[in-house]
Each structure stands twice: as structure tokens, then as C-alpha cells.
Amino acid sequence: QVQLVESGEGLVQAGGSLRLSCAASGRTSSMYAMGWFRQAPGKEREFVAAISWSGGSTYYADSVKGRFTISRDTAKNTVYLQMNSLKPEDTAVYYCAVTSSPGAGYDYWGQGTQVTVSS
After folding, report:
1. Which of 11, 39, 94, 98 is a Cys-bridge partner for 116, taking CB atoms 3.0 to 4.6 Å apart?
2. How confident is the model over 69-111, as pLDDT tens digits?
């Protein structure tokens, strides 16, 4: 099993920045990729970004391209989400997740961290 703990919760004004972190522990050798998802009130959870653990390839939702950057520190088993030029519509609970194989679903999820962007 993999345990995930997010941090970086915050309230920022529109146009501001915030960095989320997600530290993994447990069977980290089984991680294929890590991703960030978010869920706004009354909406379904949506994909934000992902990064392959070994090669570092990155993937982004169109809504965050050019504003968000996902990165990882393999020595610390930690993934980051740098969020710039934040908009009120970015307000959501952000979750990190791990998938153990390509094309498979995400097996492990963090508890979520709140990001609120005021206008």
C-alpha cells in the first residue's frame, strides 16, 4: 500500500500562487505515476495534472496548461503542484493520487487539501 499526505492548503487572491505538496510512503517502489485531481462543490472530480515517476513525463488538463506545473522529487517521494495565475474557478479540494501501472486507474488517494481563490 501507498500512503499519501497532501499539504499546502490556502486562501489566495485571484492572480496569486500556491504550491501543493504530496508526500508518499509505504510501497513507493510500486508507483508508476502520480497525479493531482480536484473537486469543486457540486461538481465531479476532475483530472488536473500527472507525472510519470521514473521518466518525469507530464500531462495537464487544458484548463491549467501554462499556469500549473507538476514536478517530483524522487528522493523525497514527493510530488508538487505549483499553481500560478490562480482563478476563482480553481477553488476546489485538491487530491493527489498514485497509479501502479500505465492505463490503470489510480489506486491510492490522499485526504485532500482545500484551495480557495478569492476574486
Report:
1. 11
2. 999 999 999 999 999 999 999 999 999 999 999 888 999 999 9
Backbone φ/ψ region at 89: left (φ over 0), alpha (ψ -120 to 50), beta? alpha
Grid cell digits, residue 42: 457540486
The secondary structure of 14-77 as a DSSP string is TT--EEEEEEEEESGGG--EEEEEEE-TTS--EEEEEEETTT--EEE-TTTTTTEEEEEETTTT
Burial classification of residue 104, based on how many CB atoms lie within 10 Å of its CB (0-12 exposed, 13-18 middle, 19 or more buried): exposed
> Contact, 117 vs 90, CB < 8 A?
yes
CA distance 101 to 17: 32
Residue pair 24/4 in contact (Cβ under 8 Å)? The answer is: yes
Q: What is the pLDDT of residues 1-29, one digit of tens each?
A: 999 999 998 999 999 999 999 999 999 88
